[in-house]
Write a structure and sequence with these properties.
Layout lengths: L2 E8 L5 E7 L7 E5 L7 E4 L1 E3 L2 E2 L2 E2 L2 E7 L7 E6 L6 E4 L7 E5 L7 H12 L4 E4 L10 H15 L4 E3 L17 H6 L15 E5 L2 E5 L11 H12 L7 E5 L16 H14 L3 E4 L5 E8 L2 E2 L4 E6 L20 E5 L3 E7 L4 E8 L9 E6 L1 H4 L1 H4 L1 H9 L2
Parallel strand pairs: 11-12, 12-13, 15-16, 16-17, 17-20
Antiparallel strand pairs: 1-2, 2-8, 3-4, 3-9, 5-8, 6-7, 9-10, 11-22, 14-15, 18-19, 18-20, 18-21, 22-23, 23-24
């Protein structure tokens, strides 16, 4: 039995989901784990799925939740009762916490460079705002991607959302996100969502919401209703930072994909503003851009910092053409492959840095300290208006 494409994700408070694929249909969905190498004090059983896509049949896909786990602790584990031993580190239970962020990864030499840079970063959770494998219906590329990212994705939780390259729709044959949903199960049920395409989770004082740019988002949609309910439940005393990810950027001064996020922005930006979202990360545009705090298309000290980071290394290349003059809300933009690091130091301050693949990982091409909205007084000022928007039926 081969244990392949191992990756992990957060699955509710103090729990982790281990996912892997086997070529043996009788292989058990068991994960044995413990805090010492080769000594597995605990075990959990999980679920399996598989899918067919035209002439392709996936292996047996296993998803097993383990826990409860201690914070900031290394666990050793193995899948299916045999095979190689892996190790993972759980995120801390309190600040500081560091996120590595890169979208539009693909499977090129640039992807490998991005992953190598991320591997040098001391991060706790990887956030990926869509476009993972660029399989585009060629299912063996999903398998290749799973093997490519396994060294990192088996050791730290990877939290992902879908992009356009996950759609893979062939008329009359397939569900749009069948491959993605089968392979990359995220904690949607744990966050009371009805779809794997949008969900939320909390880690060390940060509430993270992953939204779907390619499922309905208007005011009558399930996603809109779920988002409104999720935002209204966030306790900013417990989780002072609020971060959102989706694939198609709302603030984009690149010629590529101009205006594609406008519909989702019109529907959902009022909710994000009312809730006091600190940061939004998007992909899709194969370049890097960071905004000031913005709302309704212009600078607003109580708005959200929008960062486009779709520069992970895809095969389509970089988006080199920017709109001139630069919009007043755009602070930094550059078409280079790279990744970002968000270190949330405490309840009031976070340090954001963007690192080009062309440089050594310690070199920061863009960097900024960000102050949380909860510490700026914005949430108190907007409390009445916010409650009206978030609590209204």
């Amino acid at each position: 039995m081969n244990v392949l494409q191992v990756h992990i994700s957060l699955a509710g408070e103090n729990h982790m989901r281990i996912s892997w694929i086997t070529d043996d249909n009788s292989a058990p969905s068991i994960v044995e784990y413990g805090t010492l190498p080769g000594q597995y004090t605990f075990s959990s059983s999980g679920e399996t799925t598989s899918y067919n896509y035209l002439f392709y049949s996936s292996g047996k896909i296993h998803h097993t939740v383990i826990g409860p786990l201690e914070h900031d602790t290394i666990y050793f584990y193995r899948c299916g009762g045999q095979g190689p031993e892996f190790q993972l580190k759980t995120p801390p239970g309190q600040f500081p916490v560091t996120f590595a962020i890169a979208g539009d990864l693909g499977q090129t030499g640039w992807t490998k460079s991005t992953l190598d840079h991320i591997d040098q970063c001391k991060y706790d959770v990887h956030l990926l705002p869509g476009d993972l494998s660029y399989a585009d219906c060629m299912q063996h590329l999903w398998d290749n991607f799973g093997e490519l990212v396994q060294p990192l994705a088996s050791a730290r939780p990877w939290m992902v959302t879908q992009g356009n390259h996950e759609k893979e729709k062939i008329p009359f044959f397939t569900d749009t996100f069948e491959s993605y949903n089968a392979r990359w199960k995220m904690p949607f049920e744990e966050s009371e969502s009805t779809s794997n395409l949008y969900y939320s989770f909390e880690v060390a004082g940060v509430h993270v919401i992953m939204l779907g740019s390619y499922t309905d988002y208007d005011e009558l949609s399930d996603q809109y209703r779920w988002l409104k309910a999720d935002l209204s439940k966030v306790d900013r005393k417990k989780t002072p930072w609020l971060v959102v990810l989706f694939h198609v950027p709302w603030y984009n001064s690149n010629h590529a994909h101009q205006g594609e996020g406008d519909g989702m922005m019109a529907a959902m930006e009022p909710l994000l503003y009312a809730a006091g979202v600190d940061l939004v990360f998007a992909g899709h545009v194969h370049a890097y851009e960071r905004s000031k705090r913005v709302n309704k298309g212009k600078s607003d000290p109580c708005g959200t910092v929008h960062i486009t980071i779709g520069d992970g290394g895809n095969r389509e290349g970089l988006a080199q053409k920017y709109i001139h003059p630069t919009p007043e809300w755009s602070m930094f933009r550059e078409a280079s492959f790279g990744h970002g690091e968000l270190k949330i130091v405490n309840s009031t301050h976070a340090f954001w840095s963007w690192h080009r693949n062309d440089d050594d990982e310690p070199v920061r091409s863009d960097q900024v300290w960000i102050t949380s909205l909860i510490s700026s007084g914005c949430l108190a000022e907007n409390a009445y208006e916010s409650s009206k928007i978030l609590v209204s039926p």
